[in-house]
Protein 1
Amino acid sequence: MSHRTSASNSAADAQMEREEQANATVHIVKARLDARVVRVVPDAPKVRYLPGQYGSLGLPSATLPGRWIKRPYSVSSSILEVATGTLIDPEAVSYYEFYVNRVDAGKSAEPLTPRLFTLNDGDRIFCGRKIVGYYTLHAVPPQRHLLFVSTTTGESANNAMVNQALRERPGVRVCQVLVAVNGWRSLYAEEHAALMRCEPRYRYVVLQVDAYAAAEARLGAWLQDARCAADELGFVLDPAQSHVFLCGDPALIGAPTKQGAWRYERSQHGLIRPLTAAGFSLRTRFQPGTVDYEAYW
């Protein structure tokens, strides 16, 4: 009897832990086989955060009882209500939005992202109360034009900052470039098209490429030809007047790799190389600059 009681108590404890950890409800906004936009409504009031930052999501481990699998995800934004053309105020909505793409398990023993594709409307999930990150507009002078470049769901953080810039920075021009490999198409394509119709300061450019070298070459053309940049991006790419945000695949970004305490090795490929050659500089937590980047898969 004692064993049955112990097992019963263990089951009750596990159920209680699941109920305590699962603190939000999932709503599926858009979905296809390789990508999803989900809105997560927390039980408690939302915490304040800066557009561009990331939070965490989690689900119970399928193999380790009592354990939760958690992972960081950038908070995204649909930017505007397509039907009305009204920009979304993130502080006026009850949800956090996330944009995820299906990825291979890789070396992870129990990856979280594939399991997000099994969720249905109304399912419960863990949503972290801490939202952090330095990939934000907070250090960018308010008069600078903004270029956002991303791959696949790296668009998430950029969408959130596009929304903020258009709401809070009158006169600033904004362009978002999606570098799409293998025919990738954004789940936010409808929102971008609607935004360009109602907001003349905004441009959305899709570069369909077979390899990232083509995107690097296109950026080089914008940097070298002011008229080409103005026609396609809406403004001239000048480090004195604009700021660049890069988010997504490290192979596209080409960030320097740390080799020691204060020594870095520059990449021979990626978008950072032509930007720094044109006078842009990398911003860090310790020094100002005109390029921010966040590299992740």
Protein 2
Amino acid sequence: MAEKDYRVLSDLSQIAPYSTLAVDTEGDSLNKMRARLSGISFCGEPRRAFWLPAEAIDAPKLQQMLRQKRLAFHHAKFDLTILERHDIDLKGAEIFDTLLAAHLLDENRSKSLKRLARNLLDEEAVDFNDLNQLTLFGKNPDLAEYACADADYTFRLYELFKAEIDELPTLAHLYYEYELPTMRILRKMEQTGICLDIDHLKRVGDEYRLRIRELEEGIWAHAGRRFHVNSTVELGRVLFGDLALPSDRQTRSGRQSVNQWALESLRHRHPIVPLILEHRELMTLLANYVDKLPQLVSPETGRIHCNFNQTGTITGRLSSNDPNLQAIPRGATIRSAFVAEEDHVLIDVDFSQVELRCAAHYAQDPKMMEAFEQDVDLHKKTIADIFDKPIEEVTAEEREQAKALNFGLIYGMGAKALSSATGLSLTEAKAFIEAYFTTYKNVRQIREDVVAYTRRHGHIVNMFGRRRRFPEGNVRTAFNSMIQGTAADICRNKMIALDNMLPLEARMLVQVHDELLLEAPRDKAGEYVDFITSIMESPLEDAKGRPFRVPIRVEAGVGRSWGEAK
């Protein structure tokens, strides 16, 4: 193995000859909106890297040089933001992100640069906490050698991953036309941020605390005694001891489980359970949002700058943190704390039943496709088709049962889970599922076909070329994964279209599952709603140019706050 040649960059001419450079930033914080740059490392060939300390950076000259090259980053969204905040704007440069590539090539593995270096490059990569092990540079060497190693690893991973991606046309299309543009969009969304109404949060906190006390009184009344509701041990004693509720879930230590799934299965067994679930939800919202959100407001911008993660799920869905917007319930009054800036409104655009539309596309079920083509309420139509009754006679309760069934069967829901979700008896739930698959025959068939394909090949591929791998052989969730991944890529497709076509005064702020939140001038809200809707409902094609088989529909709302817009 060749010796490593890591050195301090004395002049930009040392890296000028390279057409491709791996770039890595080092700063004093993991918060890219606040971090101060300590230096930058570069690598243009394996095992040869350069360190440029912050005090030696000539931002205009470096920016001019880097814009003319292909640049490889490991987590480009992070590094590009830090560089831009230090007057090095790489807009227009050709970017390759080894983090996104690693995820696309194997969503199950760790995407940590150090872990990838150990597993794929046979390197003994040193973690940041162990900098004192590095001695290559002599006096005060740690950060320079560490940063050079990161750039070196990134360059070698770039060479490895680019070759793998370019071998598969559909995967290359997904990477270059979907993932990289989405990264740029998310970076803009993070930088834009969203305003927060702290006074509203204080009122919500007071309401939640009052309701929590009311719930505790109700829980104690049903239990016949006072106990610590937040204690899982005491709660288990009350539910499975005092009240003798059934339990088929256990913790690793052998106690009856009182986690979310266990409680949901008992929701219809005793009136104490819905109170406990509501109590737990409010306690979570209070701790994670009401009390925490004000601390996340940037003192520089007065807005919250969420972090969106493209590699946080195995299905392709986006996730977020600081705050985790995906975990805020749709009906929660917390949403009304997110507001538009002065003279602007928020526009909330929500895909209508996009995962069911994906199921209809793959299954090509005539009855399901007909419902979407005619813009008929699928849940009502499900009841009407199963029980051969006029759609206008379907009750609200029946619609909710069909809704649980339609969504649940995508995720492999069985009769027991349907019974828990709807209150139907186990016999009724079994009969309901059988009637459903008799009506929508193709849905059962596509589920079986996908599972069989995945069992043979070890993976499933969605219409955009995204692969979901099952190395352990447990393929039960294959159809679910294909549907979720397709819905996520449809959202990417529409975000990219909006980014290309929207004027600068209308900005995307938040993406949560099948929902997109934008900010626009108040006096143009109506025309923007129409324009955004037309883009998001435009026809779709798969990676090979074949059309999506059912129409895409969205529901749009406008308001001063996210809650009002929804």
